[in-house]
Amino acid sequence: MLAKDIKTGTVVVHDGNPVIIQGINVQSPSARGAATLYKFRARNVLTKNKVDIVLKGTDNLDEADFSRRDVQVTYSDATHLHLMDKEDFQDYELPLEEVEEEMQYMPEGLEGIRALIYNDECVGLDLPPTVEMTITQCDPSVKGNSATSRSKPATMETGLVVQVPEHIKEGERLKIDTRTGMFVSRA
After folding, report:
1. How far, in whole angstroms, is CA 9 from its chain's centroid?
2. φ and ψ of 98, to 5 deg
3. Mean pLDDT of the chain, nearest integer
4. Among 8, 18, 121, 168, which residue is least crowded by beta carbons within 10 Å?
5. pLDDT of 27 higher than 70
6. Residue 145: its pLDDT value, please?
């Protein structure tokens, strides 16, 4: 796959390991005849380490033997999160320490979770871009503070703490961006 054809979310092989592309920065040449550089911010699917890759537009990376399967969470125990494939009902399990960050964005009954399958083994989770969650605790807004755009911390149902605008109240449902952990809007 040519560097210029790689998009965010694509899984490619870099240095023998599968990496998922999370960000792309294209640097156009200032001199005539120079090559356009593609700077990729990626995450190693197996080790979760961040990787920076710089390629010319004509350089190649192989696409990984990789698939995404729609799954639902069946249960979690003390050590693992257990998932079930929605099509063939195959069970997958992931150690809780590997999905600790993703668990903050997974309220009960979340739809749209996809398992990242590499060599018939589940190596991670792909969450929807935004999730809806309910605020379980936040400070009340102070009257007269509406002239400035201040924010306050709000604790969501999963324990995630998000900065929200001053006018948001406890018990409201909000959309949260799973990539940045930021407040998007009311649900």
Report:
1. 10
2. -80, -25
3. 85
4. 121
5. yes
6. 56
Among residues 142, 128, 110, 115, the alpha carbon closest in space to that of 179 is found at 128
Which two tokens mark 177?
């961006």
Residues of the chain with pLDDT > 70: what percent?
96
| CATH number belonging to the domain at 130-186, selected among 3.90.550.10, 2.40.50.140, 3.30.2130.30, 1.10.443.10 | 2.40.50.140
What contacts 175, CB < 8 A, 6 or more positions away?
Answer: 130, 131, 132, 183, 184, 185, 186, 187
- pTM of the entire predicted model: 0.70
The answer to whether 11 and 45 have CB atoms below 8 angstroms apart is yes
Where does the chain show beta strands of DSSP type E?
Answer: 11-14, 17-27, 37-44, 50-56, 62-63, 66-76, 80-85, 91-95, 114-118, 121-126, 130-138, 151-156, 161-165, 173-177, 183-186
Tokens 């936040």 found at: 138
- The structural architecture, per CATH, of the domain 3-63 is Roll (2.30)
Tokens 């605790």 belong to residue: 137
Tokens of 76: 């979690």
